[in-house]
Structure formats: structure tokens, C-alpha cells
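INTERNAL AUDIT FORM
Audit reference: QA-55
Scope: verify that the stored structure record matches its stored sequence.
Auditor: D.O.
Record contents follow.
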Amino acid sequence: MSQTLNDTLLEDLQDDAIARLQSDPFFADVWTNAERKGVTVDDIEMALGVLNSQGGKIGLAVVASMPELIVGSPDSPGPEADIRHEFQIFEDPLLNLGEGGTGKSAQRAAINVLNLLHNYTADGLAVRGAMYAEEQPVRPMGALGGVGWLVSLRQPVTVGRTRQVKTPTISEDVGLVTLASATPGALIYYTTDGSYPGPANEEATLYDEPFATPEGPVLIRAGAALADYIPSNTRALEIEA
């Protein structure tokens, strides 16, 4: 299946994971949210200590930390990488086990997060494989004077556009400079002042036909671009005096 990639990938995958937790009966009455949506210490304390804003019970809260991107290889144009998902689980045992509490321990919540997300594949969101538990997927953490656990998983993804425009060629013969790209539909830009040959550069010219060789010394740089592709590398030709 072809995956459509975009710059909201990290948020989309995190929202998908949170929705998966919230859809499970275990977390139906547990306050669950994402740190990137402005969750504060006060929000967590309110979720632990009063009827939470999601209409659930008190004493237990799950917060998805800001996702991290870990690149394993510099060679792919994407690049291919892993996202690290971390879920912080907070519990106030006295309130959680009392009237109005969830009655579910932070330890149980941690194991349920792991069970629900380990080996889960979010097909359609540019993933390369399933989420998987890290070497130490569940470990204790400090938690606002109560009990806290941290659950860590990774998810292999391809970030950004996976295709790159072919680097254009430059040839000079009989007083004419010719540019070409092997990528169909690519637009080729060139500069003669050594600056970057891209559409946002006012000094760049859109190539449409061979042009007269400029008087040297001059450095001609060429690059090519196409929608939904990574722009090409640049190619240069030095014209001597």
C-alpha cells in the first residue's frame, strides 16, 4: 500500500496511539492526553484529584510525552527512522483506590499500554512496521509525590518524501550550455553567481532551452525540483576566463 507522507507524521502517529488506548475498556475512565497539547502539572493534579475533564474517574492519568525521532541511517533520502513513544503514568494511590477512583493501579495501566501498542501497526500513516517494546519498556519514575511508570516503545517510519529528483546534467558545447534531468516533469533552475539554484532564489532562472555560454570566469549551478519529491542535488560547471 502506498503511504502518503506529510509533516504532521509525529502528531498523527501519537494521536493514533492515544485513540487506541482511549478505545480500550481498561482506559475508558482514565484521563489520557498528549504533552504536546499543553498538558501541565496542574492538569495532571486535577485529573488525579477531581472528576477529570474527560468524564472519567480520578487517581490515575496517562500522558503521552513529546515523540522523539531517532535516525538510524543517513543514506536514505527519507530518512528512515524510529519514533520513540513514551507514556507517563501517574497515580495517587489513596484517591485511586478510594470512592471515585479508577481502582486500577499504575502498574496495571503500564502493562495495558504495552499490551495494546506492542506489535500494533498503524497502516496508512507512513509506517514501515509495527510498534515494538524497547529493551526496558516499563520502568518506574518520579511522579508528583505518588506512583509513576514510564512505558517506552519504538515505531519504524519513513519521514518526509522518499523520492528525490535526479541531479541534472550540465554540458557545454559550441558556445551553448545544455541542462537535463532524468526525472520526468522536473523543473530545472540554474544560477550563474554561485548561489543556490532553486525557485525561491530571485537570481535563479527556470531553464527551458540551451543558453549561450556566459563569459567567464563564472560558476553555473543547476538544480531540479518536482512537487512531492525531494529537490535534486546540485550540479556545477565552472566556465574559465
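Auditor finding: record pair retrieved intact. Helices lie at 9-22, 41-49, 93-96, 106-117.
Action required: none
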